[in-house]
Amino acid sequence: MSQALAGKTALVTGSSRGIGRAIAQRLAAEGATVAVTARSLAPSPSTRGGQQVVVSGTVEETVSLIEDAGGKAFALAADLEDPAARDGLIDAVVNRTGGLDILVNNAGFADYSTIDQMEVETFERTVDHYLRIPFLLSKAAIPYLRKQGAGWIVNIGSSTGLSPIRPFRDYNKSSGDVIYAATKAAQHRFTQGLAAELVDDNIAVNAVGPSTAIMTPGAEALLPAGYETEPVEYLAATVYEMCRLPAAERTGLVTFSLHFPWHEKIAVKSLDGVTDMPPLEPPVWANPNIRADGL
């Protein structure tokens, strides 16, 4: 482990399980103190297909995994749909640690439905999670990042935010991911625009998404049967790469978890930073609109 993030504080939203947990573990392995957040300290229900389901995973489990590996982390419960909890989250982290260096906007909401069948509430919650909440948390974090003299904001993007493959696949005709994809596309543009606004403050803003898909407890019900997924370690490693260079060297990128490490010949580590993962070439069936260099 390089301990390149030693002395830095990172906030990773939605880190009780899945992608958020993996990112928290990887940043902690490089020395960061990680604030691990989710809606509550206990597993909480999520909406899937109009039904309330409880998905496994807690922030305290994530903290334990980090501490067992020798890292530093603490748990904060914050329902990002609750204005009071959301608006106080950045201050809560700073009050605990004295500063903030890294913000990872990972928390999300995905309940796919075709446009003609989608409830307005689902539309509004999707827009909130991928536009309003990253905007508000970034806005609250910027003064603290400026105070540090450097900072990193990483938004978790998606290849669905790119133009779909033509001729349209059966998946695009029926998956119901249009609103999710549209907000991810907007989030990519938000990333690039905010990067331009903050580059002179030495605050880097980048987006990282899976090159294909990652099998997580929350995504399992959304992926078609037999879909080939990728290990989460490559996304976590790519997020780490977006959190260690000055903004003048790396900002405004929309990158993807297999393409970027492969193109840049980056050595990907396990979540605890100890083991080398094998190089993993992006599959030929990945969205051809993904640029390998992230530019």
Automatic annotation (TrEMBL):
<protein>
    <recommendedName>
        <fullName>3-oxoacyl-[acyl-carrier-protein] reductase MabA</fullName>
    </recommendedName>
</protein>
<keyword id="KW-0964">Secreted</keyword>
<dbReference type="InterPro" id="IPR057326">
    <property type="entry name" value="KR_dom"/>
</dbReference>
<dbReference type="GO" id="GO:0004316">
    <property type="term" value="F:3-oxoacyl-[acyl-carrier-protein] reductase (NADPH) activity"/>
</dbReference>
<dbReference type="InterPro" id="IPR036291">
    <property type="entry name" value="NAD(P)-bd_dom_sf"/>
</dbReference>
<dbReference type="InterPro" id="IPR002347">
    <property type="entry name" value="SDR_fam"/>
</dbReference>
<keyword id="KW-0134">Cell wall</keyword>
<feature type="domain" description="Ketoreductase">
    <location>
        <begin position="8"/>
        <end position="211"/>
    </location>
</feature>
<comment type="similarity">
    <text>Belongs to the short-chain dehydrogenases/reductases (SDR) family.</text>
</comment>
<dbReference type="InterPro" id="IPR050259">
    <property type="entry name" value="SDR"/>
</dbReference>
<dbReference type="Pfam" id="PF00106">
    <property type="entry name" value="adh_short"/>
</dbReference>
